[in-house]
Sequence to fold (363 residues):
Amino acid sequence: RFDKKMRLEIIEDKKLIGGLKSLKRLPCSRTPIWFMRQAGRYLPQYQNIRKKHDFLTLCKNAELAAEVTLQPVDFFDLDAAIIFSDILVVPEAMGMELNILESVGPIFSSPIRTRDQFDKLNHFSIESKLEYVANAIRLVKKTLNNKIPLIGFSGSPWTLMAYMVEGEGKTNFKYAKCLLFENEAFSHLILEKLSKSIIKYLSMQINEGVNVVQIFDTWGGLLTREQYLKFSLKYIKDIVNELKQTFPNIPIIVFSKGVFLFEEIAKIGCDAISVDWCVSLKEVRKRTNDSVSIQGNLDPIALFTSNERIKNEVINILEDFGKIKPNSGHVFNLGHGIIFDTPIENVKEMVRTVKEYSQPYHI
Ligand code: 1CP
Fold:
């Protein structure tokens, strides 16, 4: 006998589209594929639009953001769309001036180094500032018509703090890391406030229709084990707990790049762990005991090699994960974002190989 909530969950599961089944560790006919930064500069279609508008304009214009979101989905026939935006729109909405410079990457002109600077930020109502993301989500959802899931996302509190304190990405994050070493109380205050904003932001995305959320903890791997648990994973866990209370059916993917504490991550209640190419999927699977789905993990550089090599590397990853038993799940992905000059023919080869060769791994 099932109670009402369980019955609803089962009905929900019946309606699930491919990629969502994998994230929920339900049987599916082949391994789904989508990839980090699938919308972007390696696509000529994106370049065409980007020539006319700068990056933040693209993010803030719902029609353009929706169009760019759908470009890779249509072109490669992918199993999920990822809403076009950036993790840094959250600090931008809090009042930090953001510039995304060609070849340099994102820069905040006035990084946060003091309590006074931090207090001046907007810690409330960032949802209204980020309404453009809601508008883009609504547009994309309409076009997708529930054929494939839409993935929403946010940076983790630590990764956003790293950019906010440092001011830019291409560094060793010495200001941000020194703050963790030297002023724990202030660090926790920042992380606490960011967590609250992220919960609101992701809740808004889910209410607008995203089917999955991913938390990008790109800079988790810069921390010691103890720091990672205390300053990064703790806050990701708070976010997961809070979201699960309101949205128990929305899968949550956690990507802590360069962090190998898979047992600890699997325990926070997320549905999937995204991993980079430095680990074996078999090992991650064994260590997490199939309690989460696993996303990964082709090295984006592999996409600069020959078609034959790409095919071999993709098959190696499918083989490394092994047979998908009931209660296990694999989503094929890159181990990090696709590189801006990746040849699109090679991306096609990766997608084709996953679709053609993954079926026998599903019983
Ligand atoms: O298709 C998709 O995946 C959606 C688009 C997306 C996502 C998920 C973009 C567009 N950015 C992100 C996430 C993001 N942004 C992360 C987490 C994932 C990861 O580690 O790659 C991070 C760390 C950022 C920060 C950021 N924004 C960078 C990283 C490099 C650095 O120097 O720190 C860069 C280059 C940006 C700008 C950006 N964001 C997205 C695009 C397409 C671009 C390039 C802008 C352009 O068109 O010139």
